[in-house]
Amino acid sequence: MKGYNIIVESLKKEGVDTIFGYPGGAIMAIDDALMDEKEIHYILARHEQGATHEADGYARATGKVGVVLATSGPGATNTITGIATAYMDSVPLVVLTGQVPTTLIGNDAFQEADTVGISRPCTKHNFLVKDVTELARTIKEAFYIAKSGKPGPVLIDLPKDVILGESRFVYPKNVKLSGYNPTTKGNPHQIEKVTKALLESKKPLLYIGGGAISSNASGQIAQLANRLQIPVFVTLMGQGAFDPESELFLGMAGMHGTYSSNMAIQNCDFLFSLGARFDDRITGKLDEFAARAKIAHIDVDPVSIGKNVITEYPIVGDLKNVLDQILEVMERIAEPVDFYKSKYKKWLETVNRWKTEHRLDYKKNPDVIKPQQAISCLSDILAGKNPIIAVGVGQHQMWAPQYMKLSRPRSFLTSGGLGTMGYGLPAAIGAQTAYKDRIVVDIDGDGSFQMNIQELATIVQEKLKLKIMIINNRYLGMVRQWQNLFFNNRYAHTDMTFQPDFVKVADAYGIEAGRVSKPDELNKAIRTMVEYDGAYLLDVIVDRLENVYPMVPSGAPLDRMILV
Amino acid sequence: MRIRLSVLVNNEYGVLSRVANLFAARGYNIESLNVAPTHDEGVSRMTIVVEGEKEIVEQIEKQLNRMVNCLKVINLNDQPAVERELVLIKMHTNDTNRAEILRITDIFRGNIVDLSPESYTIAISGDSGKINAVISLLRSFGIKEIARTGLAALTRELKTN
User: Fold this and answer.
1) Which of A66, A395, A417, B79 has its CA 20 to 30 A from that of A547?
2) Which of A102, A105, A119, A125 is most worth mutating to test chain B (most B CB atoms within 10 A of its CB)?
3) DSSP 3-state assignment of A319?
4) Is residue A529 within 8 Å of residue A469, measured between CB atoms?
């Protein structure tokens, strides 16, 4: 069998139904083989970065591995931002890149780049396939590595002569990697210890991160929180892992977190991190972070444990499995629910007082739409519709989790770790590809949107019914906010007053669009977008100078928030 | 502090670069690095000596453990180990210094492995302290060139103090 056929057959064995890509000289034989393939749908992006974010959005929304196909040289280098984005947020991807023939590698051949060298620090693992006989095994290993343990992107570099080579096709049944054995179950002794400590604590708090989503553990988390009646906060990456309507829910913590979450962190005596990694945007000033608390941390990645904070109870393992183990121990040793209801009553009252003292809020203005107002309005209109929301990076990325009620895991797509502007639109495309009938909205900034604006063509080509809601303030708003607070209002290079007419841009691509700038027309405009049977872009002109609050200034402790 | 790590890895391309990058990304300079296959051809042992903060190196150890083609990481600071280095030293020689150079070589149980009318090449093995000592003693006679293998080490079987 030819190399390109081996690749396609291997992908089918892995259950791949969608590939995001862009053709080129080094890989065109694979494109050719895919052309008549019925089981795999090829989605033609308009830039390899777009293709990579699309595969990433697909992976986050479905839990499956996202697959990218790009050519050598610039095709491969264009995927790097997308790969680094997926790496930081532990998203499983397999990226197939073309390479010049093995005989030419290192010769500065046309469209040659050292792709394995460039991608090494931002992939979980990568391969250069030097012989066609290694193709099938390499693909098998790549998928296994991408989705097991702490998920992540894996790149396979495919020289042209390997793609065109000939070998017998045998897809291996098993993977043998002696140096790679991710821990899946928690150490029973540690499980016993941490459960006891949790039950003995007086002011416990659950800290939910992206690991809760990737290990599908939200059911177990709800069980744990409800069983003990203890409060819960989420990180940006943990959005959707806990019911926002629950009285135990405090919202998001950290730099733009809620008052109640941040106060709860600073005052709890037991902080239980479930798949979160104590990122600097969560902790604020490290020395004063959760200073009164003992810290327990479940993580599939031992590197994340004890990296930033001293951890009394470290547990390595897959979150879902470990929580099952903890719930099992709890059934054996815990008191009945009523016991904890009264035990934690005071603590919950305190936390709820913080909630009511300082709710997320903003001042409405009859003349101009507030960005928060637009997102709130969208949230109300989408209630009960099980939407998927993707965002870019910046102010709107913070307002979205603050004001959208996200009740399901895998429904919020954001570049949390790397903070990649331009992520929202392609990520939304990837999610919509997997779920044609769900409503997918890219809430974007005018800056972020322009960074991958070319992907509008992909929407049209794929006939997706994607919605794009631009929170348009004609500034790079988050940087402008920092300039406002810390740089004496000198708005260096953040004023984006010149911008294209987004409605006309959408029109040029054949996408329906509208614009709204008056608060009393907002609801109707969003409703029109949501109800339109097809792709729709809504340009929401908002207050240019609105800031995101609360805000913990960079490097300050969490309880020193600027509130409004 | 000076940290010595012994790392077993798959004997494959790219592994060295991956390992080295964990140090390079933090701006750490690897002081010495010795890599060669073990009795199992598919497995290489790296012995790495690096100056760095203990906590950061612990972090690097964890990251090494996480690497797909890394099999085992041993921190040699934590346990007794036998350590050896081999050095080749090419000396400028003349009628007045040959005898003294030879004597120092003997004291350090080295051998002359190559000679010419104007030079000796000496091979000496030992721990890093011994190698440093012999280099400093020979320096005044005129060293032409040096090649050091860097540290190679194995943990001791009997863990007596």
Assistant:
1) A417
2) A125
3) helix
4) yes
Q: Is A183 exposed, middle or buried (0-12, 13-18, 19+ CB in 10 A)?
A: middle
Report the alpha-carbon distance of residue B64 to residue B77 in Å, rounded. Answer: 17
List of E strands, A319-378: none
Per the CB < 8 A criterion, the answer to whether A97 and A70 are in contact is yes
Count of alpha carbons within 13 angstroms of residue B35, beta-carbon side: 17
Alpha-carbon gap, residue A272 to A294, rounded angstroms: 8
Closest residue to B14, CB basis, from A116, A124, A179: A116
Extract the tokens encoding B107: 């004291």
Chain B residues close to A117, C-beta within 8 Å: 17
The fold for domain B81-154 equals Alpha-Beta Plaits (3.30.70)
What does the block give as tokens for B115?
A: 């000679």
Please enumerate in sequence order all residues whose Cβ is within 8 A of that of B99, keeping only pairs 6 or more positions apart, or say none: none
- What pLDDT does B159 receive? 72
Other beta carbons less than 10 A from residue A393's beta carbon:
25
DSSP strand E in A100-198: where? 125-128, 153-159
Q: Specify whether the CB–CB gap between B47 and B153 falls below 8 A.
A: yes
Report yes or no on A252 lying in a domain: yes
Domain boundaries, chain B: 2-75, 81-154
Residues of B in contact with A126 (CB under 8 A): 14
A126 touches chain B (CB under 8 A): yes
> Could you say which of B18, B66, B70 has the minimum Cβ distance to residue A120?
B18
User: Are residue A151 and residue A196 in the same domain, yes or no?
Assistant: no
Chain segment B105-136, per-residue pLDDT in tens: 999 999 999 999 999 999 999 999 999 999 99
Tokens linked to A352:
């709820």
A73 Rama class: left (phi>0) / alpha (psi -120 to 50) / beta: left
Residue A342: HSE in the Cβ half-sphere, 13 Å Cα cutoff: 4
Residues of A annotated catalytic, as ranges: 48, 110-111, 160, 478
- Segment A492-521, tens digit of pLDDT: 999 999 999 999 999 999 999 999 999 999
Crossing angle of helices A188-200 and A319-333, in 10° steps, is: 60
The pLDDT of residue B161 is 56
Residue A153 near residue A123 (C-beta atoms within 8 A): yes
In degrees, to the nearest 5, what angle opens at C-alpha A162 toward C-alphas A158 and A166? 145
Residue B79 neighbours by CB distance under 10 Å: 10
Q: State whether A352 and A400 are in the same domain.
A: no
Cα→Cα distances B132→B47, B77, B127, Å: 18, 20, 9
Question: What is the domain extent for residue A308?
Answer: 188-357
Is residue A215 within 8 A of residue A318, CB to CB? The reply is yes
Geometric angle at alpha carbon A63, from A59 and A64, rounded to 5°: 65
pLDDT tens digit sequence for A129-172: 999 999 999 999 999 999 999 999 999 999 999 999 999 999 99
Q: Is A259 exposed, middle or buried (0-12, 13-18, 19+ CB in 10 A)?
A: buried
Range B2-75 classified under CATH 3.40.30.10? no
Looking at this protein, which amino acid is placed at residue B120? Y
Q: What's the number of CA atoms in the CB half-sphere (13 Å) around residue B135?
A: 18
When pLDDT is cut at 50, 70 and 90, the band that residue B160 belongs to is low
Within a 13 Å sphere around the CA of B129, how many CA atoms are in the beta-carbon half?
Answer: 2
Provide ipTM, 2 decimals: 0.88
Q: How far apart are CA A519 and CA A378, in angstroms?
A: 13
Measured over all CA atoms, what is the biggest interatomic distance in chain B, rounded to whole angstroms? 57
Question: Using one digit for the tens of pLDDT, what is the confidence trace for A350-364?
Answer: 999 999 999 999 999
Q: What is the CATH number of the domain that holds A104?
A: 3.40.50.970
